[in-house]
Amino acid sequence: MPSGSDPGAVLDALERAEDAFDEVGHGVPSYEAGIEPGGDWETQLTKACRLLEVVAVLRERDGYHTAVTELCFGATERSIEAYAVAMAGDEVADFRDHEYSYERAHQIGLFEAGTAEAMMDLYGENRTESYYGGGRPTEAQATAMSDLARAVHGFATAQIREGGVCRCD
């Protein structure tokens, strides 16, 4: 609860954000195009598609390595989650811990243990430093993360028996 000493602009913006997420006073919600509704694996997969689309836009603008790196970790995790929900019966709510996606990728046979551990280590050692720490991602790191995210997304999408959901290309 606000204490009364916080800036009015922050409190007003906070209230608008809370209302927006509660969908109060905004009429008919206008959801992002290109993301499948329902919260199931299709939603996770198409969120990954949209994240990868934004990565491509940012990379065309020559820079934004931090944003690209962050979005690539997100796209990788959404792709793994889509596979886990579609093929192993997981619930989206199971994936509240970022590292769980990588653990689960091995448990359900999407990736071998060494690959899943390497991806989890990459996340643990580099995402945290680039996002929360003093790290400044390089162009080479952003390029490598983009390549990894696209490879994971393509592989996970190809392993899901029901096709036609991916929005990439």
Automatic annotation (TrEMBL):
Keywords: DNA-binding, Plasmid. GO terms for molecular function: DNA binding. Residues 6-168 form the DUF8154 domain. InterPro entries: DUF8154 (IPR058467). It holds the Pfam family DUF8154. This is DNA-binding protein.
